[in-house]
Sequence to fold (515 residues):
Amino acid sequence: MDWLAQSGLTPHGFCLSWDWRLITAHVLADLFMAISYAGCGALIFWFGRRRPDMGPAVLFNALGTVFVMCGITHLSDIATIWMAGYELQAVLKVSSAAASITTVTILVSLAPRALAVPSIAQLQEANARLASERRTHAATAARLAQLGDAVEQNPNMIIVTDQDGTITYVNRAFERLTGHDRANVTGRKPSILRSPDTPQWVHENLWQAIRAREVWRGELKDVRSDGTVLWVSASIAPLRGLDNEVTGYVAIHQDITDRKLAEEELIQARRQADIANRAKSEMLANMSHELRTPLNAIIGFSSAMRMEMFGPLGAPKYGEYIGDILSSAEHLLELINDVLDMSAIEAGKIKLFEERFAPAGVVDATLRLVAQRAAEGGVSLAFRDDLPCEVIADERRLKQVVINLLTNAIKFTPPGGTVTVSLSRAGDGGVLLAVKDSGIGMDPDEIEKALQPFGQVDGSLQRKHEGTGLGLPICIGIMECHGGYLVIASAKGVGTEVKVVLPPSRVVRGESVAP
Fold:
């Protein structure tokens, strides 16, 4: 075996005593290790080229070189079993050591960067966080889209401007209500809608409010693109950014044109009705003399003929006719007086002739006037005076109120019933006069009807009780002229109580009148 020796060196097989079992184990082990190292080096070279983002190329080249050199070194170990090529093996090992040192140096320099690479748990946590943020962003985008749809599809027109009032956005309702194309209004001022009928101070107040960071609300008269009127109920507010600074303004305009036109028509109709009502009231008030004069003549001459002041009439039947004429004329005069009083109240022409008197005296006099009518109807009258005092008012008008209330109470009280009049102190210190009966009573709807001019609780042609339906409205008007009021409490089948109240300012203080 001397031929195997080179330069006086002995092959490695001599160390193994040329035992075929040892040689086989060494060869197979070195061969598999060479193949493994070479395969790892090749994979590192391949991975470095396919994934350059995973690290610098020098690192992959150095690692691949180390593994390949280690594989070649193991192949040289196999060769040295039979050949003493230790010089070449030394060169290979030195080269492997140099590559390893270089690789270690590179790894040391890259270790901090490697440590900065997140772990799998950290990457999983980051992925979970990103997924949560993605879901949040998706939900936010959905809400923004919904908000955009709400603004765009809102039935009210929405205008957004910058700080100078230049339009930056309008929704579809703006186009529908104004007739302007949104592409043509962007960059222009909202004054394109301004009506010349709107006073300048309205817009000055508007700008003053929103520049003070306040919300302005009001009604504006705008003009559509075709020149027709557009009434809107507007609310305009400043838009604030993240730093709470005003970045622009937003205006929401609700179309109220139909309502405003209806209001204008109603105002015009009411104005015409007021003019007609005043004309009617003035005509009736002016005709007072013309209507009363002939009736007074009829009543006066009928009374004279009935008393046969200038001799007998002749046939007894004439006396009956004269009585009918007199009764009808007095009834007609009473009716005309009520109509004229109501007209004067509505026209605001009623005059009060105020004097000082005792309310109890007015009630006593009125009770004497209606006593016969109450007796004919089988109704008892009662008076309770708990307030001996004097007032300053129109005595004739107050007596008219008491007569109307007593007449109504007697009229609607069946035989055997009672009508009670009482005087007492009102809760506010005024004078309270109450007329209470045990008559047929009224429900709430009938009370409301009875308080209206010419309102008849029994409106049929066959009604049992006569009257014009002006008594209570006249009483209300007279009491309001005195600064007082009238209230009714009633129940069907139980009776009615009407209260009239004079204010404390009409009560004479410091003196009393004996009952």
